[in-house]
């Protein structure tokens, strides 16, 4: 390749790098969504030992963008769970959603988020984590009230009891091998369900 061709090739690569690095403020929301999606995949595949930089690489964004949105792994885990809770809130808004359906959704989400559950658990007493507990309690409260009114949940079963069952289920999932998570969670929930019946 001639010197001119080499310069053109290098300059073209530099231009591409500058374009990627400087897509402007409008790229922020898209980058954030890409980082959250990448975090789900990376931590499901490799656990918490996965390097933080792997998330940026998978998302196709620079390290600077990663740290602007999420200064540490806990902030990223919180964003994943906020997105999970958005989906759960949308689901329980439907009057047809039962406690069994909610638990089924939680099992699905928890089964692929075990590393992030562990991370949140390690930081559970931090103030920034508190809103996750509040959101989950509201989701459970909505469905539990509906189940009591329909006669499917004993009046003596408090929302806190259901939350405890969910905590125990997710902890169980985080300790199980991937192939065992779904059947194990279903067995555990069947035990809780029998004890919660009116």
TrEMBL record:
InterPro entries assigned: Homeodomain-like_sf (IPR009057), HTH-type_TetR-like_transc_reg (IPR050109), HTH_TetR (IPR001647)
UniProt entry tagged with the keyword rRNA-binding: no
Domain HTH tetR-type: from-to ranges: 29-88
Pfam families, alphabetized: TetR_N
Protein name: TetR/AcrR family transcriptional regulator
PROSITE patterns per UniProt: HTH_TETR_2
Taxonomic lineage of the native organism: Bacteria, Bacillati, Actinomycetota, Actinomycetes, Micrococcales
Region Disordered, residue ranges: 1-31
Residue ranges for the DNA-binding region feature of this UniProt entry: 51-70
Keyword field: DNA-binding, Transcription, Transcription regulation
The keyword rRNA-binding is assigned to this record: no
